[in-house]
What does this fold into?
Amino acid sequence: MKLTKIVAAFAIVSTVSAFVAGPALAQAPAPAPAPAAGQAPAPGQPAPGGQRAGGPPQPLGFFVTSKGSGDGANLGGLAGADAHCQSLAAAAGAGNRTWRAYLSTQPAAGQPAVNARDRIGAGPWFNAKNQQIAPNVADLHGDTVRDRNQMNKNNAVDEKGQTISGAGDQPNTHDILTGSQSDGRAWPAGEDRTCRNWTSNSDGAATVGHHDRTGGGNSSWNQAHSSRGCSQANLVSTGGAGLFYCFATN
It folds into this structure.
C-alpha cells in the first residue's frame, strides 16, 4: 500500500514538472538559410545591412527606368539622363528626392571623367517593393566582399515596382546602360564606352550590365559587355532598350 502511494506521488510530480518545463524546453524553429549570392532574401529575412524585406516602409531610392529616351544611347548627356530619372521618380510619387543616373563618362574635350559610383549618394537604397538593394556604395560594388548587393531580376524593378524583362523573356531588355567598369568607375580615354558620353545615337558603343545577372559571359549588373552601337536598333539587337539605373542621392 505504501509503495503504491509513493509511485502515484512520483507520477504526479513528473507530470507537473513536464507541464512547467515544456514551453522552456521547446525547440526554437531553425533559422531560414541565408540567400545565395545575388539572390533576394527569403520573406522576412534580413537583406545585407540588416534591413528586412517587407519591414517598415522606406522611401523609394532605386529603380531601373521603365523606358529609355527612345533615341538609343543619346540621353542628352548626364544632365538629360538625370532629368529622365527625376521625371520618372516624380510620376511614381518620389519627386521630392534628388535623382541621378548611374552612368559614367570618359574624359573628353578637356573635361575629366565622371564615375557612376560618385554620383549616387551614400545609401541605403530601397526599391519600390521595399527591398534593400545595398546599404552603401562599398557593398553595392563589392569593394571588400563580393555580391553584397541584392541586384537581381526580382529586385531591380522599375519605379512602379514592375519587373524588367530579362534573359528568356520576349523581349529581353536586360542590357542596362552604365558606361562603367565593375567597380563603378569610368573607363579611360580611348575606345568609346559611353556612346560619346551619352550624346550619340549612331557611332560608338556603351558598356552595359545585366540587371538579371544572366548571360554576357559573366553575371555583372554593371559591366557585362559592350553594345553593338548607339542607335535604338543597336541596343535592341543585343537585348536592350536604352534603360539605365537611377539612384536617389539624399
Observations:
- Residues 1-52 have pLDDT under 50 and may be disordered.
- The chain has one domain: 58-250.
